[in-house]
Write a structure and sequence with these properties.
Among the domains are: about 60 residues, no CATH class; about 170 residues, Alpha-Beta Horseshoe (Leucine-rich repeat, LRR (right-handed beta-alpha superhelix)). The protein is an alpha/beta fold. It has 17 helices and 18 strands. It holds the Pfam family F-box-like. This is F-box domain-containing protein. It comes from Roridomyces roridus.
Length: about 475
Amino acid sequence: MSAATTMSSSLVPDHILESNLPPMDPDVPGAARDFIVSARARKNHLSEQISDLQSTLTALVAECESLDCQIRKHEGVLSPLRRMPPEILFTIFGFTPPWLVSAVCARWRTICLSQPLLWSTVVVEREKWGCCSVKRLESQLERSRDVPLNITFVCDIVTVSTPEQTNMLFILAQHCQRWERVTLFGSEEFILGVAEQVRGRLDILSRLDINMYHERDVASLDFLEGAPIRDLFVNKRLCYRPVSVPLFPQLSRYGGSNTWTGHLDMLRSCALLVECALNMGDAAEYAYIGAPILLPNLLRLSLSHHGFLAYLDTPALVDLYFDYDLESAHQDLPRFLRGVSCRPTRLIMTAGFEADFHPDVDQLVGVIAAVPSIRCFGLIAKPSLPADSVVDFLSRVSPALESILLSLGGEDVLTKLLEGTWDRRLRSFTLSTPDFLISSENSSKMDELRSRGIEILLVSSDFGLYAETIPQSLRLER
């Protein structure tokens, strides 16, 4: 064998190789030179072999990658999506922004571009300005052709809008005859900047959720006059920023923040309402004299002040949500219910977000007693009822009550609740359990009750209970 393929061991002693001692044997230098020559030859031979193997490995890796690509292509042939009709794909694409699905492949892009409805939802939000541009907006509006538009435009309510934001709203206003469902959030100057451009041209606008920040006593949205709006929400997320709006007799849903006068003026013309959520200022600002306003079709009502009940006649009312004031709610609610023929089945009271709230069991029982039709009752309050009060309350409420929603202040309340209610008609509990852990004993009790068909839902906060209990359209900003 040649030195390139094999080599002998070194003849230089280890104690010389592993130290700086001078070699005393005269043969050591020659042996070192012979080893170096042999080792270099061997190394060159190994490098050639490594190069050959690397070339082979590179070729094998490239072949594997090519096969992976071919396998994926052939698997794609078998994919159900490949055989799925365009009509089905169109339905699926409706749950995803068209900008994303149209970039997947040529077929999907062709389908997206052929369906203007996919491009009819326009979302311009301050959190996504990087994804928004005038060019993209113009492209989307062109691709939506003539179909009705669903628009969400959220701008900062305090800072001055940028020229690009103003330009985008101006471009959208050019298509206002196609506005069908619109959500606008911005300053008065920003929104009213297109008022004259859209006035009298909102031919198919059926739903409007507008939140317009202003510093005046009352701002005006008179440019909406004549629009066929059926669902109207004005400053729902901007508490106590009153806005004057035209009357819309055709409304089925109405909500937002306004003065007592503003709300009452609107309600007098809205006999078709089925749902209403009203945020208002202090009751002292208004004293209404006259017959209650008849809302014969109203099914769901949410109020920031229970005193507003005195001005309404709602014979079809099913769900009632309102802020509970300890001083007078126990008087106003029974008086209201005795004066109308409605028999609501769901009553949710929110209270106690102020530190001085202390629920009174006798008054709560009086409220429930005035509403024997109630099947679901909720009290979202902080501080919550003490443990003994919870037991007292549940033992005295209407035997027809089937569902209860409560804020719990501690696990002692939960323990009392679990120990004393399963033999009643109560079949459902939704409870907030903030700031405490559930013991294994109470967990076992809940499992036992669930096995008997009793529903128990725990949420981690009073706000979570509020969100779980009250539908989105009826929630009031706090």
